[in-house]
Design goal:
The protein has about 280 residues and is of the alpha/beta class. It contains 9 helices and 10 strands. The protein has an 8-stranded parallel β-barrel with strand order 1-2-3-4-5-6-7-10, surrounded by 4 helices. A two-stranded antiparallel sheet has the order 8-9. α8 crosses α9. The radius of gyration is 18 Å and the shape is globular.
């Protein structure tokens, strides 16, 4: 069975994410390691690191990924934004390593009108610098995007180009089911699903697909609108989500919910995912 979990809040302390994850029934969790609205981030104190490690041991929950702050945009052609983004991404990786978490997840960025080619050039330059100046203990996962605005990463070809040009084993991808659906990848039939997986295999390689964000979509396929919805309550549906969950090629992969935080719905969504895997939730 895949490892199932959710993005957990850290408002009561970074270690609280693990205790909350245990309460709702997670195997794995994803977190931010700081507030996401500031360029300035302090290093983690030894006290906070030890509290997190103690909580990890007490709960048995596996923290698999850190999602970087939303200010980061290494696709930007504005020098100040690009420089600040690179520096903050380096800090994110340092904090992730200190917490002994294997993956940092990031959106590739938005070119803001400079064009996709220029945006990809900036991303590649930024990733190369970050990889050169950080530890190899943390992998950087490029998350598929919905294609809103001028975002990059809504086509597998774009991610493949970035990975080929960076040429590092430290780069992988995170597939968000809502995002690829919004971007026009329709996997609501088995044939459609296999076509998408084959495309990832051909362009990138399934060995680089290391993490899933599992979300239903409030909006229909191809509209390029990023609106996450509870599992089975959106336009994707349980059967299509099940194609990923029950694919034996991903039997050891983490699947992280990023569905709306309301009325303890994480508990409900996790149970639905487990029912789908068992075959009685379709």
């Amino acid at each position: 069975m895949p490892y199932l979990g959710a993005h957990m809040p850290i408002s009561d302390g970074i270690e609280s994410s693990l205790y909350e994850g245990k309460r709702i029934g997670c195997d794995v969790i994803q977190i931010f390691t700081h507030g996401t609205t500031s360029w300035y981030v302090k290093s983690l104190t030894e006290e906070k690191i030890e509290a997190f490690k103690r909580a990890k041991k007490e709960t048995g929950i596996i923290p698999v990924s850190v999602h970087v702050g939303y200010l980061i945009n290494i696709a930007s052609s504005e020098k100040r934004i690009w420089r600040n983004s690179v520096n903050l991404l380096k800090k994110e990786i340092e904090r992730t390593e200190a917490l002994d978490i294997p993956y940092v997840v990031m959106h590739p960025g938005s070119h803001k009108g400079a064009g996709e080619d220029k945006g990809i050039e900036n991303i590649v330059r930024g990733l190369k610098k970050v990889i050169e100046e950080t530890s190899d203990k943390v992998k950087i996962l490029l998350e598929t995007t919905a294609g809103q605005g001028t975002s990059i990463g809504y086509r597998f070809e774009q991610l493949a180009e970035i990975m080929e040009k960076v040429d590092s084993e430290r780069i992988g991808i995170c597939v968000d089911t809502c995002h690829i659906f919004a971007a026009g990848y329709d996997f609501r039939t088995k044939q459609g699903y296999e076509r998408i997986i084959n495309e990832i295999e051909d362009l990138i390689g399934l060995e680089y697909l290391l993490l899933f964000h599992v979300n239903d979509s409030k909006k229909d396929c191809g509209l390029r609108i990023d609106r996450h919805m509870h599992i089975g309550k959106g336009m994707i549906g349980k059967e299509a989500i099940g194609f990923f969950l029950k694919d034996r090629r991903f039997k050891n992969h983490p699947f992280i919910l990023e569905t709306p935080k309301e009325d303890d719905y994480d508990i409900i969504n996790l149970e639905i995912l487990r029912q789908i895997i068992k075959g009685d939730g379709e």
